[in-house]
Amino acid sequence: MRDHSKVEPLHPIEVRVLGSLLEKDLTTPEYYPLTLNALQNACNQKSSREPIVNYDETTVAQGLELLRQKHLVMKVSGAGHRVEKYAHRLGETLNLGRRELALLAVLMLRGPQTVGELRGRTERMHPFEDMEEVERVLEALAARQPDPLAAPATRGRWRHLWDGGASHNEAEDEPASSVPRQSLESRVSALEREVDELKREIESFRRQFE
Questions:
Q1: Residue 52 — φ and ψ, nearest 5°?
Q2: Taking the mean position of all CA atoms in its chain, how far away is CA 42?
Q3: Where are the alpha helices (DSSP H) in 45-177?
Q4: What pTM, to 2 d.p., does this model score?
Q5: Partners of residue 157 on adjacent β-strands
Q6: pLDDT tens per residue, the chain (210 residues)?
Q7: How far is CA 118 from CA 106, 128, 159, in A?
C-alpha cells in the first residue's frame, strides 16, 4: 500500500501551484477553494512571488493533476459549486498545522528567507509570537522523519525541501568561495584534455619519422 505521508519531490510548477493554494486558503478563505482561473491568477501574481511566472491554463491544470496523483490536491465539485474548484490536502496528508503550512507557503512562493522575513511575511496567515517560535517550527519541519520539509540555507536563511534537496536557487545558496573553485576545476580539466590531445599529436608526428 502506498504511503501517502511520504514526501515526493515536486516540479517547480507543482511547488508554485501548491504554494498558491496554501496561501489563498490561509489569507482569503472566503474565496477558497479556487477555480482553475483563480489559481492561474494566484500563480502569476506579481506580488509576493519569486520568481515571477506566466503560466497558461494548461500548465496550471497539468500541475494540479500531478499534485492530485500525489494526494496533495483534490477537486471540489457538487452542491454550491457551479464550476470545478481545487483545494490542497497538505494538512491532512502530512499532518501539518496552520503554523507549519504558513511557513511552507511563503518558502514555496518566495524561496529561501531569514527567520525575520518569514515572521513578517506569514503575519496574515499565522501571527507568530516571536522569532523564536518561527525557529522552533522550522526546526520541527527540518527534524521531521522520514522526510524533512525544510532545511537551513546560507546567510541565515531557511528553504523548503519539496524539490528533494536540489533547489533552483542552489547556485545562490552556495558559499561564494565554492563558485571560483568549481570554475577552476573546470579549467584544470579542460587543460588536462588539451595536454592529452597534444601528447597524442606529438606521438603521431614522431611515428612518421620512425
A1: -75, 135
A2: 16
A3: 57-69, 90-94, 98-110, 115-121, 131-143, 170-173
A4: 0.76
A5: 114
A6: 445 567 789 999 999 999 999 999 999 999 999 999 999 999 999 999 999 999 999 999 999 999 999 999 999 976 565 789 999 999 999 999 999 999 999 999 999 999 999 999 999 999 999 999 999 999 999 999 999 999 999 999 999 999 876 544 444 444 433 334 444 555 555 556 666 666 666 666 666 666
A7: 7, 10, 11
User: Peptide bond before 33: cis, by omega within 30 degrees of 0?
Assistant: yes
CATH fold of 12-170:
Arc Repressor Mutant, subunit A (1.10.10)
108 and 21 Cβ atoms separated by less than 8 Å? no
Q: CA torsion 186→188→189→192, rounded to 10°?
A: 160
11 close to 58: Cβ distance less than 8 angstroms = no
Bridge partners of 35, per DSSP, are 85
Cα separation, 74 vs 77, in Å, equals: 10
Domain spans of the chain?
12-170, 176-210
Instruction: Tell me the C-alpha distance between 36 and 24, whole Å.
Output: 13
